[in-house]
């Protein structure tokens, strides 16, 4: 059986496993004080051209999102997200568990529109009873979105302008950042993105790493005692070298972006193949997540042969499905899927 259920079905890129093995018996300080983590931080700073950036390595996307949000918000503040945002739907209330409400706005193909963000803020502060409500304390978006769509450079600038007007930090969830940057429709580089937000993270778990996410505060203004907050959230490894080595490898010889391109190539091949067979798509995604609409018969025939996600069940038995490719998806899997269809 082949699987397109998610983009972390495989373990880690061979170069990472090789590097972990090579360095295994070296003695290093813990908690990110090792030479590999320090080197990884410097490589990321150079890659985004932000020499003063604060860089931290955490374990897992949910822990990263909840830690960053909790570190920035005051006790009476919430975070603004679209209603399809990962923190609003697929993180089991992790943000709310830390005492912060997720304030949702309508999603437009997975994206937040700056006009609606501005309208919400205007209406909130025009309400004389606003001190009785959860105050907006930051804005969260993801790149790519939960539907694989991308923000244009202009859209990011517009959202950041509203955030600046209201003194709200902008946080970009980059769990699939490499797949966004590798898309032919992407209009920004990682360095440009770093200048269009206050904090973002570079996803590793979904893009070649065993486990690891790199949180970046481009302006070097991480919240006070951020290290301690990471530990409170259970996102700190004593053997920090394991995370540092993975990102040091990913940011050597442009490996991170190079392996991300495979997911895009595979996804575009999958899309072309399905369209040739007359299959329609729920949304036009330019990244590694594709959302074909399959009939009940097609779903039944693929059962036991191909794994994928049912995204939205429809009354007629058909469903919006999700097929996710990754850095490791071989073309043979696309060909096998074509044969089964």
Outline of the structure:
By secondary structure, the chain is an alpha/beta fold.
What does this structure look like?
The mean pLDDT is 97. The protein has 341 residues and is of the alpha/beta class.
Task: Give descriptors for this structure.
13 strands; alpha/beta; 341 residues; 4-stranded antiparallel sheet; 14 helices; 7-stranded mixed sheet
Topology overview:
Blueprint: E1 2-3, H1 14-22, H2 35-47, E2 54-58, H3 61-72, E3 77-82, H4 86-89, H5 94-97, E4 102-105, H6 114-126, E5 135-142, H7 153-165, E6 170-173, H8 177-181, H9 190-194, E7 199-203, E8 213-217, H10 226-232, H11 241-250, H12 255-276, E9 289-290, E10 293-294, H13 296-302, E11 306-307, E12 309-313, E13 319-324, H14 331-340
Parallel strand pairs: 1-11, 3-4, 3-5, 5-6, 6-7
Antiparallel strand pairs: 2-8, 7-8, 9-13, 10-13, 12-13
Helix pairs in contact: 1-11, 2-11
């Amino acid at each position: 059986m082949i699987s397109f259920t998610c983009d972390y079905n495989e373990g880690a890129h061979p170069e990472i496993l090789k590097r972990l093995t090579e360095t295994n018996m070296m003695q290093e300080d813990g908690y990110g004080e090792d030479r590999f983590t320090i080197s990884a931080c410097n490589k990321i700073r150079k890659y985004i051209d932000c020499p003063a950036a604060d860089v931290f390595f955490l374990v897992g996307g949910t822990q990263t999102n909840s830690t960053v949000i909790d570190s920035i918000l005051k006790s009476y503040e919430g975070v603004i997200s679209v209603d399809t945002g990962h923190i609003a739907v697929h993180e089991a209330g992790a943000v709310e568990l830390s005492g912060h409400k997720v304030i949702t706005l309508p999603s437009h193909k997975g994206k937040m529109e700056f006009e609606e963000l501005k309208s919400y803020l205007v209406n909130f502060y025009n309400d004389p009873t606003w001190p009785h409500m959860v105050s907006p304390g930051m804005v969260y978006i993801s790149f790519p979105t939960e539907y694989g769509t991308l923000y244009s450079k202009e859209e990011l600038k517009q959202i950041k302008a509203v955030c600046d007007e209201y003194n709200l930090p902008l946080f970009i969830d980059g769990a699939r950042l490499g797949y966004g940057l590798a898309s032919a429709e992407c209009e920004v580089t990682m360095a440009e993105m770093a200048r269009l937000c206050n904090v973002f993270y570079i996803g590793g778990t979904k893009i070649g790493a065993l486990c690891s996410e790199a949180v970046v505060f481009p302006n070097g203004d991480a919240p006070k005692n951020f290290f301690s907050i990471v530990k409170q959230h259970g996102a700190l490894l004593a053997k920090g070298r394991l995370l540092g080595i993975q990102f040091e490898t990913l940011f050597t010889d442009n490996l991170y972006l190079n392996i991300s391109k495979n997911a895009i190539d595979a996804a575009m091949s999958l899309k072309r193949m399905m369209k040739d067979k007359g299959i329609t798509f729920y949304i036009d995604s330019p990244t590694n997540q594709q959302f074909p609409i399959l009939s009940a018969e097609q779903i039944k025939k693929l059962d036991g042969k191909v794994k994928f996600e049912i995204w939205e069940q429809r009354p007629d038995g058909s469903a919006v499905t999700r097929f996710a490719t990754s850095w490791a998806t071989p073309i043979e899997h696309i060909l096998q899927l074509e044969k089964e269809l």
